[in-house]
Amino acid sequence: MPFLLIQCSISQSDICNCKTEVEFLHKKIKKTPSYKANKAQYKKAYEASLKKAELLSSDYQCFVLLNKLLISLNDNHSKIYGIDKGATAAIKTNDKDLETFKKSKLYNTYPVVSIDIDSLQTALSKKSPDDIEGVYSIESMTIGVYRHSTSADYQAVIMSTDSDIWRRGELIYTLIPFGKRDYLLSIGGSTNSKRLIAYTERIKDGTFLTMGFQKQETSINHSRAPYADTTYFREELSDDITYLKIGSFSGMYPKLSDAEDFYASLKDNLKKEHLIIDIRDNGGGGNRNSDILLKIIKDYLKDNNVYIITNHRTISNAEMFAYKLKDNKNSVLFGHRTNGCAAYEVKNSNYNLPCGKFLTVLTSKKHPKFLDLESVGLDPDWVLNMDTDWVEQVVSYIENQ
């Protein structure tokens, strides 16, 4: 869904600081359905945030504070992002523009830690695979994750990188534990652009399930969806097993047109006894899309079996889709727990905060049926391990029944 940017300004006589941002955000939050459902918890968090905001002068610290306040709403669609999109692909391919970016405020927003990086790396390298603390790598970047000295939060610092925009010693993420399960709110920067972003993260078996950082960088992360360049895909795996990848439930054209064409090809054309539906990395969308497939699958389930594959990046409407099929006697859910972001919906309720640095994305619609999934997720019937291809694991399950 495209962001609706509403420009807000403050007069010369107003003071533009973090407290200004918190107070403006508070007024908008009070209009959301998640505020009404979590008033007492939110009020306590807001009062604490207001006091802390008066002491902050750093944009990064304010960004963390604003996102941390949103945790109290138990609404994982609501987030704060930086307005500056950072080093876009166009900027990084132009030497002059890249040098200009390196003089920008965003480029220098991220704190540089005072810890000796080499000593930290030595200490973190000894951490067990199950410990959140440790050394993680992805492509050309290595980070060290360690617990903050005065709180339950974790910090992720860059230990080495070949990036043109990130530097050794910069703090790339603040990771805040929340919810009743093993969730982390990751607040920091995009590895590609350095834009300020926030998202729900989980770390399992030494792997960042959203961003893909791994302690064992040579291992393959089988929790991610295959066929990265294809949204809708069908394959006949055997004489009695059909595989479908459903990578999006977007209700916007042209993606919706692609979905409609693909679903039309399925109608009255699913003849085999077993159907695998892979919705890993499906970021959701709307019922306008998913209900078309749901109707086809419910008809198919009357005489056949469905196996749904989910992961942490199965989000929002994709979680709803899995939830609606999970209790059918002929369906089984495989993989990892879903994202836990299904109870609320964003509908044109996004605003620029008054100092012109941050964009807030807030929800304006509640789905009561899915409140139990928020910050919890939908558990699979069978947890798949990350060492082996997930589709192969499901096929093996089918063959052994």
Quick summary of this structure?
The protein has 401 residues and is α+β, with helices and mostly antiparallel strands. The chain contains eleven helices and 19 strands.
Would you write up a description of this structure?
The chain is of the alpha+beta class and 401 residues long. Among the domains are: 85-208, no CATH class; 232-343 and 369-400, 2-enoyl-CoA Hydratase, Chain A, domain 1, CATH 3.90.226.10. Helix content is 28%, strand content 22%. It is built from 11 helices and 19 strands. The strands form 5 sheets. A 6-stranded antiparallel β-sheet has the order 2-3-4-5-6-7, with helices on one face. Helix 9 links the parallel strand 12 and strand 13. The chain is globular and about 65 Å long. The chain starts with 17 loop residues before the first helix and ends with a helix.
List keywords for this structure.
401 residues, alpha+beta, 2-enoyl-CoA Hydratase, Chain A, domain 1, 6-stranded antiparallel beta sheet, 6-stranded mixed beta sheet, 11 helices, 19 strands, globular, disordered N terminus
